[in-house]
Design brief:
- With 456 residues, the protein is mainly β.
- The protein folds into two domains: 44 residues; 396 residues, Neuraminidase (6 Propeller).
- It contains three helices and 26 strands.
- Strands 3-26-25-24 form a four-stranded antiparallel sheet, with no helix packed on it. A four-stranded antiparallel sheet has the order 4-5-6-7, with no helix packed on it.
- β16 and β17 form a beta hairpin.
- It is globular, with a radius of gyration of 23 Å.
- It starts with a helix and ends with a strand.
- It binds calcium ion.
- Calcium ion binds next to loops.
Length: 456
């Protein structure tokens, strides 16, 4: 070896060393940002099982690269999920998890319309480009004007809430006849005798938009439980003007079995009128031992619900424990299996129940899709607009941790593609809404409201 080639070799070794060092620094910056942004929530919602947190245990350890060979593979090609599975469960059918990655081709504008709010749990467009939004912890109901990026003073007349942990003022929705009735529906965690419940109430938005008048509680998802986790709390109206309400099973091992009980409103989809009465076509109205408001059961904690714009199917998304978050199509009277079966594990790493993942073989309804590892799915909305044609009828779900918006492509009842959006924003995405104009609106626990639309 000559002197010249030896120094060339040394040069290349140094170059590789410097590049490797730079790459390491880059990775450190990325992974450092995530725990920092989540720290507020991590302290509020501790990570042990009793005080379940909606966060995967290995939150800070994310990297861009798959940890083992083939982790991102799926039946239909490269999966949107690049992290290794945390369980050894196999899907009941190939399309049930790790759908092939898809990518939006439309050039998008992403704008932060509002910043500096609290946990922005629910949103409803009550007037073109004007939203009613809830603040979970302060229990404030605000009006956000998307044209001006302005935020109103808190609306008077909202209910007292229990805002510990996951509780507070949760969802907001308006009925199909809002323009005449001006009725606004809210969900919240309420202190009653014996503990807390997920409650639904309604009030009339005054003409000056400063107050909710004659607010009254119309429904309480009893029994009360001494706990401040897993309230569920999403509401949506059907075409008849009746309400679907989602609940949780209150998290603890001692309360979670109530998801299977038809004499409790915990871990259910509930179907009620605007007066809080059970809808008379509900599946258990003839069953004397069952609560008449129950529509479906065996759920863990549902924070997303919407109707498919084309099929009319009612879809929900529910948190699993460690992995096993589920997308389900809700049919009346069906049992979705929690806590008997699950595609997830306890936070301790132990099996849930006996570690059986198959739903159908055990007499339960299979989720149409599940995530392993978790997507921590919260609010969701179908894109029922043609402003971005390639998004039409796609489902968008807020991911709390890891921090992204999930785009899901559905054919019939099968998930055929998945994309993760706004991964660089490092926000806990709490609720998703599609405006009349076809903008995708996403609220976050960090107090932001994003507007995502086709670039002009
Ligand atoms: Ca299930």
């Amino acid at each position: 070896m000559t002197k010249i080639s030896w120094s060339k070799l040394m040069f290349f070794i140094m170059l590789i060393f410097i590049l490797a060092l730079a790459a390491c620094n880059g990775n450190n910056e990325t992974s450092d940002q995530e725990p920092a942004d989540d720290s507020g929530t991590t302290t509020e919602e501790p990570a042990d099982e009793g005080a379940e947190t909606e966060e995967p245990a290995e939150e800070g350890a994310e990297t861009e690269e798959p940890a083992d060979e083939g982790a991102g593979e799926s039946a239909g090609g490269e999966s949107a999920e690049t992290e290794p599975k945390v369980t050894e469960f196999e899907p009941a059918f190939p399309e049930q998890t790790r759908a092939p990655a898809v990518e939006t081709e439309t050039e998008l504008d992403v704008e932060v319309m509002v910043d500096g709010l609290g946990v922005t749990w629910g949103m409803a467009e009550f007037d073109t480009n004007r939203l009613l939004v809830t603040q979970r912890d302060s229990a404030e109901l605000l009006i956000v004007d998307l044209n001006e990026g302005s935020v109103s003073n808190p609306i008077e007349g909202t209910p007292e809430v229990n805002s510990e942990d996951q509780g507070g003022l949760l969802d907001v929705a308006i009925p199909p006849d809002f323009d005449e009735s001006r009725m606004v529906f809210l969900t919240f965690s309420q202190d009653i005798e014996g503990g807390t419940v997920t409650a639904v109430g309604k009030g009339v938005l005054s003409e000056d938009e400063n107050s909710l008048e004659n607010f009254e509680v119309i429904f309480q998802a009893t029994p009360a439980y001494e706990g401040t986790l897993h309230y569920g709390g999403r509401i949506i109206f059907d075409d008849d003007g009746n309400l679907f309400l989602t609940t949780g099973e209150r998290s603890d091992v001692e309360s979670r079995d109530r998801a299977q009980d038809l004499d409790a409103y915990l871990g259910k989809v509930i179907h009620i009128t605007q007066d809080g009465e059970p809808v008379d076509t509900n599946p258990f109205v003839e069953d004397e031992d069952a609560l008449d408001g129950i529509y479906s059961y065996g759920h863990r904690n549902i924070q997303g619900i919407d109707f498919h714009p084309e099929t009319g199917d009612l879809w929900i998304v529910e948190f699993g424990p460690q992995a096993g978050d589920e997308l389900n199509i809700i049919e009346p009277g069906n049992n979705y299996g929690w806590p008997i079966v699950s595609y997830g594990l306890e936070y301790s790493g132990e099996f849930v129940n006996e570690g059986i993942s198959e739903h159908e073989a055990q007499g339960f309804i299979e989720p149409r899709y599940y995530w392993d590892p978790t997507s921590a799915p919260s609010g969701m909305s179908f894109y029922d607009n043609d402003a971005i044609p390639e998004w039409e009828n796609n489902l968008f779900i807020g991911g709390l941790a890891p921090n992204y918006i999930v785009r899901v492509i559905i054919e019939g009842d099968t998930i055929v593609g998945e994309e993760r959006l706004l991964t660089d924003e490092v926000q806990r995405f709490r609720d998703i809404l599609v405006t009349e104009d076809g903008a995708l609106i996403a609220s976050t626990d960090g107090g932001r409201i994003y507007k995502i639309s086709a670039a002009e």
